[in-house]
Design a protein that fits this description.
about 325 residues, 14 helices
């Protein structure tokens, strides 16, 4: 399944890159057209991811149901995690249904009607009736908790937000922190988005750089994506680190801690930003540019330090 996840993420990356570049063009030009293209590009990433995962697991029969379920996951704020879970569920469920023996004359009905409808209905029912309420509850209460912190300890708040950015790399926890950050811009508060702009780029940037410093900690496939990860980090696309997370779960605490450290460094150095985006690409829009660069360096070094101690060497080329 890890190989399937890695291949599916790589196949979905072009949509992420298009969305990121369009968002940056919209940021600098203030043209709504680019923002619309960006939004739709990001919107299709979870469905595409779900579809590719399901297709790799069970064949083309599961592709459309997974696309539908991945799209539905967007409406309950599951993001990329929803896409991955949708693809895995449809992949295994359709594979199970395909084992049912039917007469040859009914095989087309089975593969074109019964399996797609059954898998879509079951998956969407689980999404809406089992997952929707708990996720909504979690998001609402997390926002309430974050609002209570904003009046008490700004450094601790930013530490939490930075860690959330690195937690699921484009999933619901990441989006809660990001939306919280851009919401503060509407109230004229720029001291939250500055540190978040740092945290956003640290996971892909640091993991990409680590491919050249800690070569024996990564497989050949991971090393081959190092340049891509660095590029996505520069563009402020946190999802660029997903390929490493799917390969080794030990990456998760590393991205959480390093993003939190980088964000805290930016807060201490009074880095602020009026731009609802992150990464080195927004450097011209940052106040205290030196502090911004120093904070990214601190967070990236923290990630590489943690990688050295937490990630085991790879013994063979894979």
């Amino acid at each position: 399944m890890r190989k399937i996840l890695m291949k599916s993420i790589i196949q979905s990356i072009p949509a992420v890159i298009i969305g990121g570049i369009m968002a940056i063009i919209a940021l600098y030009t203030k043209i709504d057209f680019f923002k619309i293209v960006s939004n739709y590009s990001f919107f299709i990433v979870p469905p595409l991811l779900a579809g590719f995962i399901a297709k790799e697991k069970c064949g083309s029969t599961g592709f459309i149901p997974a696309l539908i379920l991945g799209s539905l996951s967007q409406f309950i704020n599951l993001g990329l995690i929803g896409g991955i879970l949708s693809g895995i569920f449809i992949g295994y469920f359709v594979e199970l249904l395909k084992k049912i023996k039917v007469p040859l004359e009914f095989s087309s009905i089975m593969y074109l009607i019964i399996i797609p409808i059954a898998s879509t209905l079951l998956g969407s029912s689980i999404m809406f009736y089992l997952l929707k309420e708990p996720i909504t509850f979690f998001i609402e209460n997390t926002n309430v908790y974050l609002n209570t912190l904003s009046d008490k300890n700004i450094i601790f708040l930013i530490f939490i937000l930075g860690g959330m950015i690195g937690a699921d790399l484009g999933g619901p926890i990441n989006k809660i922190a990001y939306i919280y950050g851009i919401t503060t811009l509407d109230y004229g508060k720029y001291d939250i988005m500055g540190p978040l702009a740092v945290a956003i780029c640290i996971p892909p940037l640091s993991l990409g750089i680590a491919q050249y410093i800690l070569k024996n900690r990564f497989s050949k496939i991971e090393r081959d994506t190092g340049i891509l990860a660095i590029f996505l980090g520069i563009l402020g696309i946190t999802e660029g680190a997903l390929i490493y997370l799917t390969k080794d779960i030990k990456i998760l605490p590393i991205t959480v801690i390093s993003s939190a450290i980088g964000a805290c460094s930016a807060a201490i150095l009074h880095v602020t930003s009026k731009a609802p985006h992150g990464g080195l690409i927004v450097l011209p829009l940052i106040d205290n540019k030196i502090g911004f660069l120093i904070s990214i360096a601190i967070g990236s070094l923290a990630a590489i330090f943690l990688l050295y101690f937490l990630k085991n060497p790879v013994n063979k080329e894979i």
